[in-house]
Amino acid sequence: MISRDALEVWKRQVAGSFHPIAVTGAGISVPSGLPTVSADWKGIPLREFFTLDMFLRETERFYQYYRHILQHWTHARPNQAHYSLAKKGIPVITQNIDGLHSMAGSRHVLELHGNLLELVCTNCRSIYSSQLAYRQKLPQCASCRGLLKPNIVLVGEEVYHYGTAVDWVGRADLLLIVGTRLEMAPCNELLEIAKRNGAAIIRINRRAEVILPQILSGSSSE
Ligand SMILES: [Zn+2]
Asked: Which residues fall in a coiled-coil region (predicted)?
C-alpha cells in the first residue's frame, strides 16, 4: 500500500515538474487483461514465442501463435493509468506492444518494442495491419513480396527509437516509472540518465490505474 503522505509527495513532484516523462512496462496493462512476458499465456510460452530465432526457423508456427494471441489482445482496452497519462499530456516511452497508450489518446509515444497490431515487411519495411495475418498463412508484402513479420522487437533484435528515448529522458525533470522494474538493458540506462540529471523519480509497480489518476489530477501540462 502507498501511504497518503507518499501520495502527497508524488502529487507535489508532478505539480512542480516542467518536463515529466513516463516509462511504462507490462504492469500498466495488467488491469486491461494483458499478461506480463514472464508468464505462459493461453498455453503459449511467451518467452519462447518472442524470439527472432523462432520466427526464422518456425515461421508457420510463429504465425499460428501470433493469430492466437491477437484474438485475445485485440479485445484489450486502455485502463485509467493509460488514460490519466494521456489526459495530462505526459510523453510516454513504453516497453509494451499493446498500443494502449495511443488508443488512450497519448500523442507522444515511443514504442520501444514495436506494436503487436502491425506487420512490417522484412524487406522494404512497409507497415500493414495485423488483420492480414488472418487472410494469409504467411503474410506477404503487397509491393515487394517480402515476408511480413509482426512489428514487434523479438529477442535477438534491437529496440526501436532508443536514441529518441535517451533524448527525452535527458530533458526530463521527473521520471514516472510505471509497471516495470526497468532492469533490462538497454532500458535500465534510461533510469541512470535520469538519476545523473537529478530528475525526480516516482516508481509505481502496482495499482497504477488507481494511483496515477490521483497524483496526475490537476491542470494539463500541454
Ligand atoms: Zn516489402
From this structure: none
Catalytic residues, by residue number, are 113
Instruction: Identify the CATH assignment for 1-34+79-113+159-222 out of 3.40.50.1220, 3.90.1150.10, 3.30.70.20, 3.40.50.300.
Output: 3.40.50.1220
pTM of the model: 0.90
All three cell numbers of 145, joined, read 513480396
Question: Residues comprising the binding site for Zn(2+)?
Answer: 121, 124, 141, 144
Comparing 128 with 36, the larger pLDDT belongs to: 128
Residues having C-beta closer than 5 Å to ion ligand 1:
121, 123-124, 126, 141, 144, 146
